[in-house]
Amino acid sequence: MSQSTFSPVDSLFVPRFAEPATFFRTPWLKRDAEVDIALLGVPFDFQTNRAGARHGPAQVREMSRLVRRYNSDGGPSPFDQCTVADLGDVPVIPIDISRSVESIVHHVGQIASRGATTVCVGGDHGVTYPVIKGLGSSEPLGIIHFDSHPDTYSDAWGDRYNHGTLLRRCVEEGLIDPKRSVSVGIRGTRFSLDDRDYHLEHGMRLISFDEFEELGRAKTIETIRQVVGKGPTYLTFDIDSLDPAYCIGTGAPEPGGFTMRDAQVLLRGLRGLNIVAGDVCEVSPPFDSGNHTALNGANLMFEILCLVADCVARRKASVAG
Length: 321
Hints:
Number of helices: 9
CATH topology: Arginase, Chain A
Number of strands: 8
Distance between the termini: 23 Å
Oligomer: single chain
Strand order of the largest sheet: 2-1-3-8-7-4-5-6
Structural class: alpha/beta
Strand content: 15-25%
Order of helices and strands: EHHEHEHEHEHEHEHEH
């Protein structure tokens, strides 16, 4: 298929409210399609207090109709740089955590085996672990982790797989390099005073929201870039790192977070890094009045897509040259 085959539906000719919703109006293809970047939904809730993120992919698709082809910073369109398509949702089993984890790993792995990378929408933040595992990287990845919570807990209710344990599981299994890991925006009430010790013990950089305010956007971007360096890096954005004014539709809203403008500037400041894949998680439509959170989730997904497409395009140019 030619590059034009993957072009999003042009909203100047086909109204945004027409045709079935796909991520950014890209083609909906079967999971065995050969693309540079697969846009995927991962509709699964782990154990959580305010369930509903399983509905996130569907509503983010709907609101992504409003996202246009080019980023406002004037960068190239990801749809011109790469072949991009919506490959649907990863199969999950709603009542079975272990089998759902296995399914996510398997299906992301199948896509990765064909040379594609992924930009995903959860689901709660627990889905990031099996997505990273499914990528099957030959070396531990760096990780940029936007969140209001540390996500390094050992377990919850005796289960090691949930939305608060993803970083610990990834470190334990050698999926990410803790020395190239940075968590940004951590804040909110805490279960215990040692809940950030895992970062310290394993050499992981943690930028609390208080520190972000002291550093400012530019210094925070500089710090993130220094931590992850030039190596392959995964970017995960928990929507609850935003202030609840921008994301009331999420499972664990925490007052005092990023504005959407903060998030846009921070993400755009990461262009040029080796961002090999990414996700947005924790959009929960049942709590989302007016689809405000889903709209912000779609825009954050687009920012991550731009970063991943830039990385893929540079890699393709290097191989061709």
